[in-house]
Amino acid sequence: MLARLQQVITLGLAALAAACVVYFVQMGLPILAVLGASLIVLGYALFLAFEFILLAFIQEDEPTPRPSARQLFGAWWGEVMTAPRVFCWRQPFRTGSEPDLLNDATGRRGIVFVHGFFCNRALWNPWMSRLRGEGVPFIAVSLEPVFGSISDYVSTIDEAVARLDAATGRAPLIVAHSMGGLAVREWLHRVDRSHLRVHHVITIGTPHHGTWIARWGRTVNGTEMRLKSPLVTRLAEAGTVQRHALFTCFYGNCDNIVFPASTATLAGADNRHLPGVAHVQMAFHASVFTEAWRLLTGPAQDAPTVPAFRFKGEI
């Protein structure tokens, strides 16, 4: 469903930009043709700039270091470059280009990937391509319904964990971006003994305590990510420092979606700050892959060397 929706949006914007060029050129106004088409195609960059301005001012009593202007600009530019690849190409048109890898997986720990809001499994294509080359088994889910409750995703996560466990004989690592981290926590809360079925959980820019910007959310899962929402409050009350030790939480002072920054941390978790990195861009940061590789392969002194790592065209 999401891929089709993003195809319509992407192709619709391209058609609108083309129509704008044709109209103004026929009117003998080539400058307006260029300006109009640019505004249609690059308008998302202005919207992203608005998000970064908001996060710069919505700090409250935030313990995370305030971002510098240079960090904010760098994060904005990184997100401007990353967003089209994710939302206008990979997710709409490349959803099935990296199928799950389960063959010959016995004895090797794998990864379950859980995406965030308005995303699908193709968010993880660079990860999956890299892991396929290393022979690491994985499953990437697509959470449906797209705008449903976060609680609706529990069965999808449970099935993926069970499938990967059955294929490998080992509890998987879960890597979750944004809202996906809340869905994983809901799974841990709702499914009995689920914490014994997972090796570790990495969350990337997850609004564990909600996010300020979700006050404008109108979908069911959008409202569930508001600060002090019933779901966020319930998960906080159910969580313990011991349970949170299962988590490594990556967060950043330039996250344009989850802010204030500390809302992406958990007491008792291994919280790791990625300064100057935007929300979607954070999912492809080399530090996240390095930690995932360490958790897949064991203690540092016993682990094989981390593969030379850089997602093509990402960071």
Describe the protein's architecture and organization.
- This protein is of the alpha/beta class.
- It has 2 domains: 2-93, no CATH class; 111-297, Rossmann fold, CATH 3.40.50.1820.
- The chain is built from 10 helices and 6 strands.
- The chain has a 6-stranded parallel beta sheet with strand order 2-1-3-4-5-6, sandwiched between helices.
- Strand 1 (111-114), helix 4 (125-134) and strand 2 form a beta-alpha-beta unit.
- The longest helix has 28 residues, at 30-57.
- The protein is globular and about 70 Å long.
Main attributes of the structure:
315 residues, alpha/beta, six-stranded parallel sheet, 10 helices
Q: Structural class, judged by helices and strands?
A: alpha/beta
How helical, in percent, are the residues?
Answer: 40-55%
Order of H and E elements? HHHEHEHEHEHHHEEH
Output the CATH class name of the largest domain: Alpha Beta
Tell me the CATH architecture of the largest domain: 3-Layer(aba) Sandwich
Query: What is the H level of CATH, i.e. the homologous superfamily of the largest domain?
Result: Alpha/Beta hydrolase fold, catalytic domain
